[in-house]
Automatic annotation (TrEMBL):
The lineage of its organism: Bacteria, Bacillati, Bacillota, Bacilli, Bacillales. Belongs to the glycosyl hydrolase 1 family. Keywords: Glycosidase, Hydrolase. Pfam families: Glyco_hydro_1 (PF00232). GO terms for biological process: carbohydrate catabolic process. InterPro entries: GH, Glyco_hydro_1, Glyco_hydro_1_AS. This is 6-phospho-beta-glucosidase.
């Protein structure tokens, strides 16, 4: 087969996942409780079909088999996250030696199979005890996080050289403090701003700590879900609404993480509405001095925006939604099995933006994928025929390839996700994997896309 779209040599092919979503063994191996374990205990009905995070895909017990499968389909990289509450139960203090052993085993097994581990420190999973002390609203939790990061660099930095401080830090802000889909289910823009700000300070502190270690060719960065904001029209009200959505949902992390400072316009909006967060002396310098070496970009869907049609309730809590409405663009292409828009060119627009406005920072697609409900309906001859997923990946890769041709500094592509996994409130509703997982038996089976990606990774293109 001839290769039309060839990727640069050494391109990172792989997939991404997170501790809570794949490890299972939530109450084993000395792991402490995190907010997901707690929330499930108190409100199991908020989870799709009442399924909680206790067992997920059981990677904790099956990692060897899974790493063989990764190797089989041509992965040269794989992203996992460390569970803070597994490594340091309770979030502070003593390290759990069983966890050290577990993560050492995974890292060693990946390396022995020619797969470079990309390690993320925080994927939505605050230790419950620290949440009780205020979670990201509390400044002392920021210091606990930096101490946890230091432990992780010390324990695993001799073998791991790609580190990430956070996955999608805006999501716990949206879920936990604006729109009620993560614990602690607060709806309050003021508190959301504080949480976002402290997360950014925590990021900068972890980067600062990282740089005191001598990690061979080590790089540290952050993973952001960038949702390019497209206005309904070019009229000034729509343009402004779209710009503000971009400030809140992309630039509130992208600018400080990469450029070392918050956008002036964002600060102005917060100031005007009396919503500036509490800061400490030295924060500004800390953020300025500790920008990311590398950026992971999660891209699922764009945001379509129009000017506000109805004025917000002036007595309600401050919300980003005061400034724009979401817009259901007629004729947009939808993923019929998940309800998200599919707009492949978004990936190109993000990359060009990084090139033009963010110093062409080294980046990669750290998540992209197609969730499908009831995917068993595509089962034929014992295998899920996920041609829709192959098309989805191919079309996104085509745009990524074009961006690279135009000089963008994109180094890889990770699918969300390696195997179907448990996903927060959605539990097992949407399936994303190259491999299916039987929820009861935990048996893994390749889907058609697994064979396809193997070929793509081996040829370094398609
Ligand atoms: C991203 C998260 C992942 C994963 C994915 C799919 O935002 O980083 O953790 O959950 O979304 O989400 P869902 O399963 O809700 O479709």
């Amino acid at each position: 087969m001839s290769v039309q779209y060839k990727f640069p040599e050494g391109f990172w092919w792989g997939s991404a996942t997170s501790a809570t979503q794949m490890e299972g063994a939530a109450n084993e191996g000395g792991k402490g409780k995190n907010i997901w374990d707690h929330w499930y205990e108190v409100e199991p009905n908020r989870f799709f079909e009442g399924v909680g995070p206790e067992s997920t895909s059981d990677f904790y017990y099956r990692y060897k088999e899974d790493i063989q499968l990764m190797k089989e389909i041509g992965h040269n990289t794989f992203r996992l996250s460390i569970s803070w509450s597994r490594l340091i139960p309770g979030g502070r203090g003593k390290v759990n030696q069983e966890a050290v052993k577990f993560y050492n085993n995974i890292i060693d097994e990946l390396l022995a199979n020619g797969i470079e581990p990309f390690v993320n420190l925080y994927h939505f999973d605050m230790p419950f005890e620290l949440q009780e002390e205020g979670g990201w609203e509390s400044r002392s939790v920021v210091d606990e996080y930096a101490a946890y990061a230091k432990e992780a660099f010390r324990l695993f930095g001799d073998r791991v050289s790609k580190w990430f401080t956070f996955n999608e830090p805006i999501v716990p802000v949206e879920g936990g403090y604006l729109y009620d889909f993560h614990y602690p289910n607060v709806v309050d823009g003021r508190r959301a701003v504080q949480v976002a700000y402290h997360t950014m300070v925590a990021h900068a502190k972890a980067v600062e700590v990282f740089r005191t270690f001598d990690i061979n060719e080590g790089k540290i960065g952050i993973i952001l879900n960038l949702t390019p904001s497209y206005p309904r029209s070019q009229n000034s009200a729509d343009l402004k609404a779209s710009r503000i959505a971009d400030l809140f949902f992309n630039r509130s992390f992208l600018d400080p993480a990469v450029l070392g400072e918050y956008p002036e316009e964002l600060i102005e909006i917060l100031r005007e509405h009396g919503q500036l967060p509490m800061t400490e002396n030295g924060d500004r310098e800390l953020i300025k001095a500790n920008t990311a070496d590398i950026l992971g970009v999660n891209y699922y869907q764009p945001r379509r925006v129009k000017a506000k049609e109805h004025l917000p309730n002036p007595y309600g809590p401050f919300m980003p939604d005061w400034f724009f409405d979401n817009y259901e663009m007629p004729g947009r292409k939808m993923n019929p099995y998940r309800g998200w828009e599919i707009y492949e060119k978004g990936i190109y627009d993000i990359m060009i933006n990084l090139k033009e406005n963010y110093g062409n920072i080294e980046s990669f697609i750290s998540e992209n994928g197609m969730g499908v409900q009831d995917e068993e309906r595509f089962l034929e001859d014992g295998e899920i025929q996920d041609d829709y997923r192959i098309d989805f990946i191919r079309e996104h890769l085509t745009w990524l390839h074009k961006a690279i041709q135009e000089g963008c500094n994109a180094k890889g592509y990770h699918l969300w996700t390696f195997m179907d996994n448990w996903s927060w409130m959605n539990a097992y509703k949407n399936r994303y994997g190259f491999f299916s997982v039987d929820v009861k038996t935990k048996e893994r089976k390749p889907k058609k896309s697994a064979h396809w990606i193997k070929e793509v990774s081996e040829q370094n293109g398609f």
